[in-house]
Write a sequence for this structure.
């Protein structure tokens, strides 16, 4: 009789152990599920934040007269560049200061311009991200757009209905993340199919021009 009682007791203990093990396993699985769920929600939030940053802005109207359909105009975009230092990440960009004789006010607000077809003269400049020091933006435009090291006058033949992109290669003396070590910028232009419209040689910085900056 004692042996039967001990067997029943052992069975109950084993069942309790199995039940506790199952509960613990379910708890761990639940924790893992929650972790995955939180991770996915975080990714969705990040994607939503990025999509809000990439919201299309209205291109600058770089032609006279009434608004016309895009099929009758050329669209020129300024490229973006991602830079990182020890603490922060930045987004630099090519901006447009002038189209022919039309100077663009608040040029940092536009990363695309719409143009009449034909030969166009574009003055562009390399605009670097000021991070938290956004109050210095007007001074940055004045500086970057007037220095031959960071701005350039480009001539392209624009065709109606085509999209062009002004590319740039920033050249640094030191750490590429440190904008203070930026030596100069080379520019070129491609169409939407990757064909060169204005070559790197035509848009590169020429050190011989530096003397004119100091006058």
């Amino acid at each position: 009789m004692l042996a039967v009682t001990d067997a029943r007791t052992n069975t109950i203990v084993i069942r309790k152990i199995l039940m506790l093990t199952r509960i613990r396993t379910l708890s761990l699985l639940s924790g893992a599920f929650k972790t995955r769920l939180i991770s996915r929600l975080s990714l969705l939030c990040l994607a939503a934040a990025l999509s809000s940053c990439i919201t299309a802005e209205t291109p600058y109207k770089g032609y006279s007269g009434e608004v016309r359909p895009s099929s009758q105009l050329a669209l020129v975009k300024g490229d973006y560049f991602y830079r990182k230092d020890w603490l922060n990440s930045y987004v630099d960009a090519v901006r447009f200061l002038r189209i022919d004789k039309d100077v663009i006010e608040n040029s940092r607000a536009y990363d695309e311009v719409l143009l009449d077809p034909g030969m166009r003269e574009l003055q562009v400049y390399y605009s670097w991200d000021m991070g938290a020091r956004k109050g210095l933006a007007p001074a940055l435009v004045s500086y970057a757009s007037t220095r031959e090291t960071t701005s350039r006058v480009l001539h392209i033949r624009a065709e109606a209905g085509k999209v062009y992109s002004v590319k740039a290669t920033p050249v640094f003396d030191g750490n590429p993340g440190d904008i203070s070590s930026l030596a100069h910028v080379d520019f070129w232009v491609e169409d939407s199919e990757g064909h060169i419209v204005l070559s790197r040689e035509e848009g590169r910085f020429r050190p011989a021009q530096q003397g004119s900056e100091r006058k």
